[in-house]
Design a protein that fits this description.
heterodimer; B: six-stranded mixed sheet; 11 strands; about 0% helix; about 60% strand
């Protein structure tokens, strides 16, 4: 059963705490992405990675960090520096095979709430 | 800055009628566009895509039209069903650089409500 999985579905963060959101894919995709979605709004790019051990900042990277040690995994850490972390976080992947048509496929999302 | 946007935030449709969702884009360098459907509490689901060298593409009950002259994209859903109720996003593909790869820029979304 191929696809993108995200865990947990819901995550609660206390003040000053770092939390890590998991994203795994078994689609053999090279590229992976993290987006943030606020209520009633579109998706904003946080970080993306075209290949293992490499990643780039998106439009709203401040307060977040990522790693890409394995092709299948792209975890996102929401640090204490992110003052407004409450949002729906979406992970996506694409083949990353080049060209300029790259469909991204999304996971089910993680909803992060601040206690 | 350049962006992708939608004309209508909410669209109410009678079951069985056709739906048309519109999207304007302003980045002339974009050459690939995607429509996604997002149900409440779920991740976006790919519906259909279109390349800039095409004007029209059809899928199952859906058609995407691209007008590059006025930088306009639309999604048509035929015989709208209750299961079509969701938020629909258009996205444009912008190749940031050869090294940075491809990025998608999303519009704000249109909510489609299907009335029985």
């Amino acid at each position: 059963d191929g696809g993108i999985t995200q865990s947990p579905k819901y995550l609660f963060r206390k003040e000053g705490q770092n939390v890590t959101l998991s994203c795994e894919q078994n689609l053999n995709h090279d590229a992976m992405y993290w987006y943030r979605q606020d209520p009633g709004q579109g998706l904003r790019l946080i970080y993306y990675s075209q290949i293992v051990n490499d990643f780039q900042k998106g439009d709203i990277a401040e307060g977040y960090s990522v790693s890409r040690e394995k092709k299948e995994s792209f975890p996102l850490t929401v640090t204490s520096a992110q003052k407004n972390p409450t949002a729906f976080y979406l992970c996506a992947s694409s083949t990353g095979q080049g060209g300029n048509q790259e469909t991204q496929y999304f996971g089910p999302g993680t909803r992060l709430l601040v206690l | 800055g350049e962006s992708v946007g939608l004309h209508l935030p909410t669209l109410s449709v009678q079951e069985g009628d056709n739906s048309i969702i519109n999207c304007a884009y302003s980045n002339s360098a974009s050459d690939y566009f995607i429509w996604y459907k997002q149900e409440s509490g779920k991740g976006p689901q790919f519906i259909i895509d279109i390349r800039s060298n095409m004007d029209k593409r059809q899928g199952q009950r859906v058609t995407v039209l691209l007008n590059k002259t006025v930088k306009h994209l639309s999604l048509q859903i035929a015989a709208t069903q209750p299961g079509d109720s969701a938020v629909y996003f258009c996205a444009e593909n912008i190749r940031a650089s050869v090294a940075a790869g491809n990025k998608l820029t999303f519009g704000g979304g249109t909510r489609v409500l299907v009335k029985p």
